[in-house]
Batch of 2 targets.
Target 1
Amino acid sequence: MEEQARKRVFSGVQPTGKVTLGNYLGAIRNWQPLQEQYDCIYCVVDLHSLTVTQVPAELRKNTMELVALYIACGIDPTKSTLFIQSHVHEHAELAWILDTIAYVGELNRMTQFKDKSRKHADNINMGLMNYPVLMASDILLYNADYIPVGKDQVQHVELTRDVAQRFNARYSDTFVVPQTLINKSGQSIKSLQDPSAKMSKSDPNDNALISLNDDADTIRRKLRRAVTDSDTCVRHGADKPAITNLLNIYTLCSGVSMSDAEKSFEGKGYGEFKDAVADAVISVVSPIQAEQKRLLADKAYLEGVLKTGAEQASYIASKTLAKVYRKVGLIPRVR
Ligand code: TYM
């Protein structure tokens, strides 16, 4: 296996629906500091979005908005590779090869597949089941070492590891076996309406999530409406899932530690606490929104970033795919 000078990081977000505060705190926010230490590749995974029916014009709009959001969140295209998944055809091609390695049984057991099958009972398409194999392909094409994701994606990274190890055992050492990078406090931001469920882009109840597109008034209103726990005390703990979630959001957005936060809200009511959470969230989200808006107005710049990103990604991906084709016994095309 070829040794890279720096360890490599790969991650992505689907341009589906609204990007939530959960996506930001659990994933995107953690990507920026990694740029200094690692060779980072960040992808807008548009092919994954197709597993749920999309309105084509909306998918295009969401995709460009997400590209701008990555940059607004601190992803520097001169330090990291930033690209759109469908611009690099090797993702879909490697997924086919990996399909012959992954087992139906293991894909059938994926929690997200089961969840989404329940939610989209009228459209349990093959792509929905195959989704983790495409994700494995994203990761393995770049021989990524570390995958910064939220908790809900850990099972998919585990599957990626299994597929990589199985391929390596069958065809000799080819893929790096990746590891998950998790930010403990942000790994699972919960729904504002049901702290037993994760905050999800696809939640039909808009009050359950904070979208990175929400304006300040909307953020404040949603946090004021957030469910709370039985007593009136602002502290974290297993018996206080709703307040723990709000405290997590507060500490992550304000930088105040959990113990200092608990101390500062001692003897204060939920109303005052929720307003402080709203202030902290708004102070994080507002500058990102302003920068995203500025970037979206500069189409030429974004297109330039995407062109360079796709070229950089293709260079690595084409080498990996050629190697894989050779190893499995496909004859290289004569040019
Ligand atoms: P997606 O688009 O559902 O979510 C993007 C990232 O956000 C994290 N996340 C959360 N973190 C904390 N709390 C939450 N409530 C929350 N909701 C979402 C997710 O864990 C994820 O890190 N399959 C992936 C995208 C993908 C990918 C990849 C990721 C495709 N290929 C390769 C890493 C590497 C997905 O659907 O994420």
Target 2
Amino acid sequence: MDLYDYNTVKRILGKYGFTFSKALGQNFLIDPDVCPQMADSLCADKSTGVLEVGPGIGVLTKELCGVAGRVVSLELDKRLLPVLDETLAEFDNVEILNADVMKIDLNALIDEKLGDCKAVKVCANLPYYITSPVIMTLLESRLPIDEIVVMVQKEAGERLCAQVGSRLAGAVTVAVNYYADSEILFDVLRDCFMPSPKVDSVVIRLKIRKEQKFKVKDEKRFFTVVKCAFSQRRKTALNSISNTMGISKDKVTAVFNGLGLDLNIRAEKLTMEDFINISENI
Ligand code: SAM
């Protein structure tokens, strides 16, 4: 079944009376090049397990089944289950679970379903409304995965993969950089989807580091400082940290002075080391 063919997709969706849900970020890929390119960039083989989020009608899932040993795919929308039964009927190495990626215990899931795979990777065309929360959950849960290849909105991708200390950086950039090396792999235009969204997308790769690159004594405090520093982007990092962490301006000024930091510096100009030093001295 050619899931890149507009009429085939229309026919199969019609057969099951499926209508797109905007709230669930349902924009399905119909471009014939994007999914194979995503699957190829995983460098998977038959010893690889892949966790997919949001299979839709299974267009990317099919490609993943072709390159990996086993695929486990989480779909929140029950209405897609009979569709997937039909579109993925030819594959015996895929399991579709009706689950919410934000609620399921991913560590237990990977252990149970993909625990015997030599490597586990995550691949998805992520629903836009939960891009950052999903990526943060995948990173913070310290899952036994070695990389994440996902499609996200172009702007979100540029922020996720920005350099810490650059204009595009945000709290999520620092968080990604803490756990992984990131890169933008390729652009995907809006007309590659059905229905077509209002924005373009990019496919990004987050390669999770086996060894921790940054040594942080108190991770909770570190991430609180990062979030607070970026929470008032128009203000200086000093004011933003003081206002949102409820620490007096004098105390934060003393910390900045002690570290030799410009008192007017904004969060996007701070480096990883600056954030670590601030969090350890505040
Ligand atoms: N992979 C398909 C493709 O590329 O055509 C569909 C991608 S579509 C952008 C996002 C998919 O994620 C939809 O199928 C949607 O129902 C599903 N989804 C939305 N929220 C979800 C959640 N919290 N957990 C699991 N799947 C979810």
